[in-house]
Amino acid sequence: MDFPVRPGVNGLEKIVVNTPVAQGEVYLQGAHVTAWQPTGRKPVLWMSGQSYFEPGKPIRGGMPVCFPWFGPHPADSSRPAHGTARIQKWSPVRSRWYPNGVAELVFEAHVAPFTVQLQIRMGQQLELCMRTTLSPEQTQPVSFEQALHTYFCVSDVRNAEIRGLENSSFIDKMRQARRCDPAGCPITFNKETDRVYFNTADTVVIHDSGDGRQIVIEKTGSLSTVVWNPWIDKSRRMPDFGDSEWPGMVCVETANVADNRVRLAPGSSHEMTVRISVKDR
Q: Which pLDDT band holds residue 1 (cuts at 50, 70, 90)?
């Protein structure tokens, strides 16, 4: 590996990226990107100061990989929320450093009956490609849900807005999963927000007036976008999330969930890609 594995918090293994154009890190547990920023810019990914860094427990913040289900398991509430991929150790497959300073890391995990590869490219942009293959030994198609549950840094979520989903219908989890028509306006925040926008492949932009920047989220192979901020009460109920941390983050998640879950035939594959960039306002 061009980027060696080294001990991270509590001894969990991680790979640190430091090139002329970007800095970041990825934990092998969950193939979890916990940091990325282009050189000369502020951090783009948010991490909770209360996050667990323990084997078998999810890391709070960064870019968790949710797979093969999203949220609670549909049939067994005792199984881990958001699937097993984010709490198991992934294997580094290869790494490469391109002449333009972009670092490429590839990880693999077996989540029966699937094999999942995650290609991560860190440079002036951050790009993740999640390739999911159903075992050819299966005799029937199998469906799954997936999300790159990305936590973004904002100066204050109350002064941020999200554009690009104005024309998309959504499921509002704060209203008993009610299905809602397009709002026709940008998303702003004044309370707990938990929405699944479906049948949308549109680019989404976080406008952060306090930091004077835009975070641009482009995607392919994804028809769902999840937007989440826990606000005050939910933050207090989560032991791995600081009570006063909620103003500094917002989740915009590249996903295929609910109506947009993916159905694979034996031996076939699906790719979902997200590309994140930062621009001055």
A: low
